[in-house]
Write a structure and sequence with these properties.
The protein has 397 residues and is α/β, with parallel strands linked by helices. It is built from 16 helices and 15 strands.
C-alpha cells in the first residue's frame, strides 16, 4: 500500500516538551493599619486588590487601613478584600504588606515563616529588629531595594519624584504665608521678575524639583559635586539652566539672591551639611528653605526636624520646612505609586509558584530580599549591624 503524504507526516518524530510547567500558587495577603507616626500611605489600592482577587488570591485588610489615603473600607470590600477589626487576624496571614517596617509588637503577632514586604528604612533600624525577624524565621523584602530591569530602584525613584515636585508646591504655598511670607506668586508674570530657585542636589528629587520650577516659570540654579549628575539632569530637562559644582563662594552668591532653596542631597550615612548657618543669615528675609534631605539629617545647618502638623519654623528670618517623609503628605498619590510597583511583583510571585521560584527568575526581586527563612541575606545590613549573613545564591539555586 503506498504511503500518502499525510501518513508520512504522521511517522515523523515529534518534539518532546521537557520543560516542567510551573504551578501557580495562591497568595493570602494581610494589610494592617499603619501605626507609625505621620504614616498615611497604604501598599495596595482597591483597584490593585481587585486585580489580585480576580487572579484567585485573598486579601485581608484591617478596618480603616486605607482611610488616611482616602480609601474607604467599602471600596476595599467591593474590590473583594476581607475586612476585619482584629489586627491579629491580619498579622496571621502568610504574607504581610506594610509601608513602614513592622514594629516589635507587630513582629510578635506575625506567625513563623511569614513573608513580609515593606520598607526597611535602614538608618532607623536597630540590631534587635533583625534578631526578632530571625527568631520568627521570616522571609522579608525591602521594596526600596527591589531593582527594575534597567538597574534602577523603582520605589525610591517614584517617591523621589513625588518629593521633588512636592518641594516646589510646598515652597509656593509658603511664599504667600500671611504671617511671614513675602506675598509672592511662584512663577513668571509679565513685567515681574521671576522666582529664583536654588536646588542643591542633581538626583531624582532635584531633577523633578527643577522640572516643576521651570514649568512654573522660575529661574533655576542647580548645584551638585557630580558633573555626571548635572549633565544627566540637563539632558533630561531639555532646557538650558545654570548648573555648578558646590563652591562656597558661588553657592553663597546664589543663595543671597534666591527666593526658594531646595535641599535634595543624599549621602551614604548622613547627608553632608552644604549650607552653613552663616550662608542662611545672608539669605533674603522671608525666603523659603525646603530641606528634603532631612530624612538623612539635612543639608542645611539650620535644619531641624518638623512634623506635618507643625511643618515650619523661622530661623535667621528664613522660613524652614523640614518634614521627613514628604510623600506621606500626598498619601493617595504615594499609595497609588507604591501599589503600581508592588502589584506586578505579587502577581509574578504567584505565577512563578512562590517566593523561591520568583527570586530564581527575577534578579530585581531577589535584590530586595534581605531575610530568607530567618537567614540574613544582605551583606550590607550584616556589616552595618555586625550580624552573620549568607549569600542568597548559595541558598537558593
Amino acid at each position: 500500500m503506498p504511503i500518502t503524504p499525510f501518513s508520512k507526516q504522521q511517522l515523523l518524530p515529534q518534539e518532546e516538551k521537557l520543560e516542567i510547567a510551573r504551578h501557580k500558587s495562591e497568595l493570602f495577603i494581610g494589610i494592617p493599619k499603619e501605626t507609625s507616626y505621620q504614616e498615611r500611605r497604604i501598599c495596595l489600592t482597591p483597584d490593585a486588590v481587585n486585580s489580585l482577587v480576580s487572579h484567585g488570591h485573598r486579601v485581608m485588610l484591617e478596618a480603616g487601613a486605607g482611610e488616611s489615603a482616602s480609601y474607604s473600607d467599602k471600596e476595599y470590600s467591593d474590590a473583594g478584600a476581607e475586612i476585619t477589626q482584629d489586627p491579629k487576624k491580619v498579622f496571621s496571614c502568610p504574607m504581610i504588606l506594610k509601608v513602614e517596617p513592622p514594629t516589635s509588637a507587630e513582629i510578635e503577632m506575625i506567625n513563623p515563616n511569614t513573608i513580609v514586604i515593606s520598607a526597611i528604612q535602614l538608618k532607623t533600624r536597630k540590631k534587635e529588629y533583625f534578631e526578632k525577624l530571625a527568631k520568627k524565621r521570616i522571609t522579608a523584602f525591602a521594596f526600596e531595594f527591589i531593582k527594575d530591569d534597567d538597574g534602577s530602584y523603582p520605589a525610591v525613584k517614584s517617591l523621589s519624584e513625588i518629593a521633588g515636585i512636592a518641594s516646589i508646591l510646598i515652597a509656593s504655598e509658603l511664599m504667600i504665608n500671611n504671617q511671614f511670607g513675602k506675598g509672592l506668586l511662584f512663577g513668571n508674570i509679565t513685567g515681574v521678575a521671576p522666582t529664583d530657585v536654588v536646588i542643591i542636589g542633581a538626583g531624582t528629587v532635584g531633577e523633578f524639583a527643577a522640572k516643576t520650577a521651570l514649568g512654573m516659570g522660575a529661574n533655576v540654579k542647580v548645584f551638585d559635586n557630580s558633573i555626571t549628575k548635572l549633565r544627566r539632569l540637563q539632558n533630561n530637562l531639555k532646557h538650558p539652566i545654570f548648573t555648578s559644582t558646590i563652591q562656597p563662594k558661588g553657592l553663597l552668591k546664589a543663595l543671597r539672591r534666591c527666593d526658594v532653596a531646595i535641599g535634595a542631597m543624599r549621602g551614604q550615612n548622613r547627608t553632608p551639611i552644604v549650607v552653613t548657618e552663616t550662608m542662611v543669615e545672608h539669605m533674603k528675609k522671608g525666603a523659603v528653605i525646603v530641606d528634603v534631605s532631612i530624612d538623612t539629617g539635612g543639608c542645611f545647618e539650620t535644619s531641624e526636624i518638623t512634623t506635618h502638623e507643625k511643618p515650619t519654623f523661622i530661623k535667621n528670618n528664613v522660613i524652614h520646612y523640614c518634614v521627613p517623609n514628604i510623600p506621606s503628605r500626598y498619601s493617595k498619590t504615594a499609595s497609588l505609586s507604591i501599589s503600581n510597583i508592588l502589584t506586578p511583583y505579587l502577581i509574578q510571585i504567584a505565577e512563578d509558584g512562590g517566593v523561591e521560584s520568583a527570586i530564581r527568575c527575577n534578579r530585581g526581586l531577589k535584590n530586595g530580599l534581605y531575610f530568607y527563612h530567618g537567614i540574613l541575606t544582605n551583606k550590607s545590613i550584616g556589616d552595618w549591624f555586625d550580624l552573620p549573613n549568607s549569600d542568597i545564591n548559595l541558598i537558593v539555586f
